[in-house]
Amino acid sequence: EIVLTQSPGTLSLSPGERATLSCRASQSVTSSYLAWYQQKPGQAPRLLIYDASNKATGIPDSFSGSGSGTDFTLTISRLEPEDFAVYYCHQYGTLPLTFGGGTKVEI
Amino acid sequence: EVQLLESGGGLVQPGGSLRLSCAASGFTFSSSAMNWVRQAPGKGLEWVSIISGSSGTKYYADSVKGRFTVSRDNSKNTLYLQMNSLKAEDTAVYYCANAPAIFGVIGGWGQGTLVTVSS
User: In a 3-state reduction of DSSP, which class is residue B81?
Assistant: First the structure.
């Protein structure tokens, strides 16, 4: 099983600041099949990034993904109030599919 | 627009059974792989199961293997999860979610249905 470790667990920032979230895999992620999701309280997750660096439909340009192999990063270039949420990485290249433990971005 | 609507959650005693359903619309259901993903209260996301569009391929997390069974009825655009021998640790919100293939990104999510296992 590929274990995804997200860091930091919590990121305390202010609107307008840059957020850098890390996701490290215990083994190489096949074909960079790595996605990022945003989840707000009481809501289902929302797809942000797929295949490590491709933005999903309707996702603002402030969100970007990078990385390959075992190290991946989600960057939010300038935090908007609505960006404060929990973010999960997810690998879908190897069964069992797995999710990271999440990073909470808080004010 | 992808729409997924789960139902069937509720309170069940340990050792009991429950069947979840997920009604799908807005995409070609029979061509899509479908997942169940759960989230225990205050915890992160845990993948549970996946089924291919033809039902020919099914996979389960070790935590539910032998107790849960995923199935689908493409004529009704509906996904199911039969959950038997339920344990307290199965308590979670259960989401259904679609993907283009077994090894495809999960794109659309339902709103979830809460399953509580407690005496």
Answer: strand
Q: What is the pLDDT of residues A24-67, one digit of tens each?
A: 999 999 989 999 999 999 999 999 999 999 999 999 999 999 99
Asked if the Cβ–Cβ distance from A88 to B45 is below 8 Å, we say yes
- Whether residue B61 contacts residue B49, with contact meaning beta carbons closer than 8 Å, is answered with yes
CA B86 from centre of chain: 15
Closest CA to A12 of A76, A84, A102, A107: A107
Judge whether B61 and B71 are in contact, CB under 8 Å. no
Strand A46-50 to A34-39 pairing:
antiparallel
Interface of B with A in 7-36 (CB under 8 A): 35
Query: Are B106 and A100 a contacting pair at CB < 8 A?
Result: no
DSSP one-letter code for B26: S
**Digit-coded pLDDT (tens) for B3-59:** 999 999 999 999 999 999 999 999 999 999 999 999 999 999 999 999 999 888 999
Q: What are phi and psi of B89, to 5 degrees?
A: -75, -5
Q: Which residue has the tokens 């707000």?
A: A40
**What is the nearest CA distance from A107 to chain B, expressed in angstroms?**
19
Task: Dump pLDDT digits (tens) for B84-114.
Answer: 999 999 999 999 999 999 999 999 999 999 9
In sequence order, what are the residues at sequence separation of 6 or more whose Cβ sits closer than 8 angstroms to the Cβ of residue B53? Answer: B29, B30, B31, B32, B33, B74
